Amino acid sequence: MNSHPAHTDASGKAQKGSSSSDGALTPRTPASPQPEHSAPAGLTALGDTNGAPKTERLEAPAQLAVTDIRIAGHDDFDRVVFEMAGNGMPGWYVSYTEQPFYQGSGRTVDMEHLVALNINIDGVVRSDEVAKDLPSPDYAEVAKLESDLGKQLGVVKEFIPGGMHDGRAQYFLGLDMKQPFSVQVLRGPTRLVIDILH
Which residue ranges does the record annotate as region Disordered (predicted)? Predict the structure, then answer.
C-alpha cells in the first residue's frame, strides 16, 4: 500500500492523508465516512478481541453527537471509529446478528452479506442539539464507499446507518462471517473504536 506523509494545519489537526491517533485515516471532509488507503505500520487491535456481545451502560446522562465516522484497514484488523462531540461518555451494545433489523420500526435491514455487526451507541442526539455549527456524518457518502470497502478492508464489506431512536444511534457492518472484535472508548476527542480481526 502507498504511504502518505502526515500533514497538520495550524491547530495541529491532521489533514487528508495523515493518520489520526486512533489509527484511522483523517477524511477529506471531517463529516464524511472514508475508507483508509494506507495504515500506519505496527498498529494492533485495542482491547480483548472475541466474538461475544459487548456492552457498556451509560454511567450518567450524556448528550453526544456523532460528528465523524472513519473506516480503516490495517494488516491484521479493520477499524471503525465513531467520533463524538458534546457532554458525557457513550454507552454501547455491539453484537453479531444474522437477522438485522432497524430499531424503532423493526424493519429488516437489507444486507448483501451473511452476518451483521449491530452497533448501538447510547447517549446520542442530533448534532444541532449540541452546537449549531457542529458537523454530521454525510451518509450519502457511504454508498460511494461500498465498492471500495471490499478492496481496501479485510473483513468489513458494508456499512449501513440505522438511524437514531430514543437517544440511541444504530449502525451495521456487513461481513461474510463472524470475526473476533473489540470495543473501546478513547478520549480527546471522544471516540468509540471497534476493531475487527481478519
Answer: 1-54
| Domain range annotation of the chain | 54-197
Is 161:142 a contact under the CB 8 Å cutoff?
Answer: yes
Residue 180, C-beta contacts closer than 8 angstroms, at least 6 positions apart: 49, 50, 51, 196, 197
Burial class (CB in 10 A: 0-12, 13-18, 19+), 135: middle
What does the pLDDT look like over 11-62, one tens digit per residue?
333 333 334 556 654 333 334 444 443 445 568 889 899 999 999 999 899 9
Question: Which fold is adopted by the domain 54-197?
Answer: Immunoglobulin-like (2.60.40)
Residue 76 CA from chain centroid, whole number = 17
Calculate the alpha carbon distances from 10 to 14, 17, 32, 105, 171 in Å: 10, 16, 22, 45, 33
Q: What is the pTM of this model?
A: 0.77
Cell 456492552 -> residue: 55
Q: Can you tell me whether residue 71 is helix, strand or coil? A: strand
Q: What is the CA radius of gyration of the chain?
A: 16
